[in-house]
Inverse folding.
């Protein structure tokens, strides 16, 4: 009778990287559904959670606009809405895999989740305010703030105007069909599908339209690719998510029994869609095409699988790589950079068969 008791039911939990601030990974190896449950959605924070309420909450749009506006929470939630299911991936996802190693939160494979977001398209709000012809960027400020390099700063990021006006960029108030949770951006979160998660500003309070390039600690210092170890030359900003994949099962260094097994996982990309996934069980000597499950959809990951009969008393080096519709392929070696962003080298594990 005891195994049927709900108390004994096995279930995954977030993997904690730090508590102050709260940084926790999604147990991505054990997810089956296309929508990551809110309680298992990864959390990436630079500062403590803000405490907010919808009773007196409003969003301001200011700067180079014809009509600066202040919109109450209840007003925004009655505006024309759009629902977007999208991967949100931290740009530091898989940082722990870089060689040579880099400093920063040592994320493994779980700084990524997929959810359904509902909100008002950003372009609709900007149209109401009336964007001036001289506008260069749109700046987004969250309610989270804290000490960075000795100064008290808020989390602020910007988008080029062209990106900000895309219809899938939304100011969301719902996540997975419920009000956004306080740990994931309540009451409002900017959602920028296809870009790494730093662009999807949480606890959004101010939108400022500017006629010049924005500069700030989370825009021109953090979230920048610095390709050289000892200088900041040839630096470029972190933007679109790279084509990537993960092997969910088997797990790395797992011991399997003789017989047929299914290698399975997820693949995703920031622009276009994943069109193919290949699997190698001989350390990249030969590659076989995996089966994609479902129709590839923009901004969403796709499940893949490959069945194989493993031989007894052997070790296997399994590799996986994904291709997208824009001609991007996971590289053998990730683009190394000082802060460890955008890791997307060929996914690989080793297993042993008894």
């Amino acid at each position: 009778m005891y195994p049927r008791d709900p108390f004994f039911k096995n279930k995954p939990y977030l993997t904690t990287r730090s508590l102050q601030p709260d940084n926790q990974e999604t147990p991505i190896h054990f997810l089956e559904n296309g929508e990551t449950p809110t309680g298992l959605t990864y959390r990436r924070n630079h500062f403590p959670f803000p405490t907010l309420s919808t009773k007196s909450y409003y969003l301001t749009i200011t700067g180079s606009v014809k009509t600066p506006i202040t919109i109450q929470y209840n007003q925004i939630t009655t505006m024309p809405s759009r629902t977007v299911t999208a991967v949100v991936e931290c740009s530091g996802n898989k940082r722990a895999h870089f060689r040579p190693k880099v400093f920063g939160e040592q994320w493994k494979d779980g700084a990524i989740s997929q959810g359904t977001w509902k909100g008002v398209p950003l372009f609709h709000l900007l149209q109401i305010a009336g964007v001036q012809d001289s506008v260069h960027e749109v700046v987004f400020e969250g309610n989270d703030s804290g000490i960075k390099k000795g100064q008290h700063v808020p989390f602020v990021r910007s988008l080029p105007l062209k990106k900000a006006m895309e219809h899938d960029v939304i100011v969301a108030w719902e996540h997975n069909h419920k009000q956004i949770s306080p740990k994931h951006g309540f009451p409002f979160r900017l959602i920028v599908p296809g870009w790494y998660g730093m662009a999807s500003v949480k606890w959004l309070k101010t939108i400022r339209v500017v006629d010049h390039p924005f500069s700030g600690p989370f825009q021109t210092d953090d979230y920048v690719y610095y390709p050289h170890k000892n200088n900041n030359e040839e630096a470029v900003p972190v933007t679109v998510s790279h084509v990537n994949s993960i092997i969910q099962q088997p797990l790395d260094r797992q011991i399997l029994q003789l017989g047929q097994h299914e290698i399975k996982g997820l693949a995703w990309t920031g622009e276009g869609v994943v069109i193919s996934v290949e699997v190698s069980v001989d350390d990249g000597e030969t590659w076989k095409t995996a089966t994609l499950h479902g129709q590839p959809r923009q901004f969403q990951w796709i499940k893949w699988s490959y069945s194989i009969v493993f031989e007894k008393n052997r070790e296997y080096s399994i590799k996986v790589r994904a291709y997208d519709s824009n001609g991007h392929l996971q590289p053998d070696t990730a683009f190394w950079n000082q802060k460890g962003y955008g890791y997307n080298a060929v996914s690989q594990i080793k297993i042993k068969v008894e």
Notes: The mean pLDDT is 96. The domain at 15-237 is CATH 3.90.420.10 (Sulfite Oxidase; Chain A, domain 2).
